[in-house]
Amino acid sequence: MAIDVATVKKVASLSRLREPEARLESLSGELNGILGWIEQLNEIDVTGVEPMTTAVAAAAPLREDVVSDGGKVADVVKNAPKTVDGFFVVPKVVE
């Protein structure tokens, strides 16, 4: 796919970018160079390569998934205006 000056002008218009007429020809060449490089990537044989999200193999440090109250119920609710059995008490907003 080749990008001509008319396409560059249309993309610039859609992107709300103002480019001078003299620059459109060089932009067309630059974009065609980028597209050519991307097409070169299609020539790479990736057979047997597992998809990956990063080039560095690293495991995320995760804590054990255990349900708990955090052990700090009293600290959490100590500034609440009103509590009952460790729960916030709020005014009724739906009738």
Written overview of the protein:
The chain is mostly helical. The chain has 3 helices and 2 strands, in the order H-H-H-E-E. It has helices spanning 5-14, 21-41, 73-77, and strands at 83-84, 87-88. The longest helix has 21 residues, at 21-41. The mean pLDDT is 90.
The profile of the biggest β sheet is: 2 strands, antiparallel
Mean pLDDT: 90
Q: Spans with pLDDT under 50 lasting ≥5 residues?
A: none
Order of helices and strands: HHHEE
Strand numbers in spatial order across the main sheet:
1-2
Tell how many strands the DSSP assignment holds. 2
**Percent helix range:** 25-40%
Portion in beta strands: under 5%
Structural class: mainly alpha
Rounded to an integer in angstroms, the radius of gyration calculated over CA atoms is 30 Å
Overall geometry comes to: elongated
N-to-C span: 63 Å
Number of helices: 3
Concise summary:
By secondary structure, this protein is mainly alpha-helical. It has three helices and two strands. Strands 1-2 form a two-stranded antiparallel sheet.
Topology of this protein?
Blueprint: H1 5-14, H2 21-41, H3 73-77, E1 83-84, E2 87-88
Antiparallel strand pairs: 1-2
Helix pairs in contact: 1-2
What key phrases describe this protein's structure?
95 residues, two-stranded antiparallel ribbon, 3 helices, 38% helix
